[in-house]
Structure formats: structure tokens, C-alpha cells
Amino acid sequence: MLTDGRLAYPERCRCSPCRTGAQHFSEDLQLTELQFDTVQATVYGTLAVAAVQGSLGGLMFWILGLPTPLLWGLVMSLLSVVPVLGAFIVWIPAAILLLLMATGPRTRSSRLGAASS
């Protein structure tokens, strides 16, 4: 809709429940603006959630003492846009690394598991 909106407009008008004609142009214009606003809000919301998730993940990696927390926070931000898997792809190797670095009865990986749930 954002890139090929002008090309898709005639097909959308044909399938639209709105009536055709000059007097109903404002209804179609409102529908187009609503669609644009919805797409824009979805994109901005996804980017905001990605930034927050990456920042908190990087902070958690820094607290837990993992190497290069800034890099992994950035990777987490980028991957959080991917549906279903998202930032989870970063948490699994981090948990494995913490298990390998574990010392004492209360390991850092258990704290990571508690923080991610």
C-alpha cells in the first residue's frame, strides 16, 4: 500500500464496499488515510518494541557479565522484528554460554532464565 498505492487504487475501489462517484470520494479518502495510519503505527510500534527489547537484553547481558553486551543487544533489537523466533534466538546461546561459565550452586544461567520468563 505504501509503495504501490496508486497502482492498487483502482482494484481496491472495485473491491471496496464504499459506493463510487464523486460524492463518495471523501469516504474513500478517509479509508485510505486510515489504512496509511494503521500501517505507520504498526511499523513505529514494532521498531519501538525492538529498541526496548534490545536495550533491556543488552543491559541484562551486561549485568550477567557476558562478553560484548552492546553487540548482543543490537542483534537482539534487529532479530526481535522477526516473527515467532525473534530475540529468543539470542537468549539460547547466551544461556548455554552462562551454563558453561557457571560457578557455585546458584548459577548465572538460572538468573537469566528467571529474567527472560
In terms of topology, how is this protein built?
Layout: H1 5-15, H2 25-64, H3 69-79, H4 88-100, H5 108-116
Helix pairs in contact: 2-3, 4-5
Number of domains: 1
Derived from helix and strand composition plus strand pairing, the structural class reads mainly alpha
Instruction: Give the termini separation.
Output: 37 Å
Order of helices and strands: HHHHH
Report the principal-axis shape: rod-shaped
Largest sheet: none
Radius of gyration: 23 Å
Seen as an oligomer or otherwise, the chain set is: single chain
Mean pLDDT: 77
| Helix percent band | over 70%
- Report low-confidence residues grouped into runs of 5 or more: none
Summarize the structure.
By secondary structure, the protein is mostly helical. It contains five helices and no strands. The chain starts with a helix and ends with a helix.
Description:
The chain is an all-alpha fold and 117 residues long. It has one domain (5-116). It has five helices and no strands. The protein has helices spanning 5-15, 25-64, 69-79, 88-100, 108-116. Helix 2 runs antiparallel to helix 3 and helix 4 (88-100) packs antiparallel against helix 5 (108-116). The longest helix has 40 residues, at 25-64. The radius of gyration is 23 Å and the shape is rod-shaped. The chain starts with a helix and ends with a helix.
